[in-house]
Amino acid sequence: MLRVALPGGVDVALRPVGGDDEAWMLDSVDAIAPSVRATALVARCLVGESDPERTSRALTVGDREAFLLHLRRATLGDVADCVLQCPQCGERMELELRLGDLLVPRYDDAAPEYDLNVEHDDGRYAVRFRLPTADDLDCMSELARHAPEPAADDLLRRCVLHVSKNGAEVSVDDIPSAVRDAVSSSMAAKDPQAEIELAVTCPSCGAAFSIVFDTAMFFLQELEQRAARLVREVHVLASQYHWSERDILRLPPARRAVYLELIAESAAKGRSR
After folding, report:
1. What is the distance between the alpha carbons of residues 15 and 196, in angstroms, rounded to a whole number?
2. What is the pTM (predicted TM-score) of this model?
3. Structural domain boundaries of the chain?
4. Is residue 258's pLDDT more than 80?
5. Using CB atoms within 10 A of its CB, is residue 242 exposed (0-12), middle (13-18) or buried (19+)?
6. Would you say 82 and 95 are in contact if contact means Cβ atoms under 8 Å apart?
7. For residue range 56-87, what is the model confidence (pLDDT) as tens digits?
8. CATH code for residues 114-190
9. Contacts from 262-269 at CB under 8 Å and sequence distance 24+?
10. Which residues have C-beta within 8 Å of that of residue 170, sequence separation ≥ 6?
């Protein structure tokens, strides 16, 4: 178990991803949207929470991102190897990341709600908002895939708690685009962990560009690859030792590796006779 401090001011305990979680990854790969799977994985690995699903859904986007970074470090280590393609010359390039460097310090001004005043041509807007949560992202994830602009509008409606223009209450749908942009920018500024932007330079052509590192997508893909290997490991161990799938999944990865090595050695000796 590992206790970590998330930037939004929440302290949580987590455990590394285990064999049962990897099997769940395979079972859910085509059934659940990636954002929902990421939140569900957080819930599975939370420790000491009376309602881990509710806790995971209530995390701000930045806190969920930080949790997944900590979870990946606890499960697979701090170093992550990424393969990118240069948008200028098309060359494939390898990028080594230290995930601990992507974690931001705890926010000094973390709060349940924020107030923003925006001066516009037609008046003064006072906006009260909260930060988007994992539940917000999950609820609009399907819409965001096909219609990103309506999804962004839906997110704003969810997170804006009150708007007034020159002291009179107005609807979120009636505020000008410039005010909406100001609110979105303020949300991003209040939760910088929510979007991790990397500055990259292509070693081949020297082009400089930036990319957004999506921790959830990256980690889920890694776990899917591990889960596929796990199926083969279960097959080999079950064939050799006649253990049940559940018993094999409960073995720590290092111990599974030892048994697999013994099987390989025994097979090699058999072929050399």
Report:
1. 24
2. 0.86
3. 2-104+215-222, 114-190, 231-272
4. yes
5. exposed
6. yes
7. 999 999 999 999 999 999 999 999 999 999 99
8. 3.30.2220
9. 263/236, 263/237
10. 163, 164
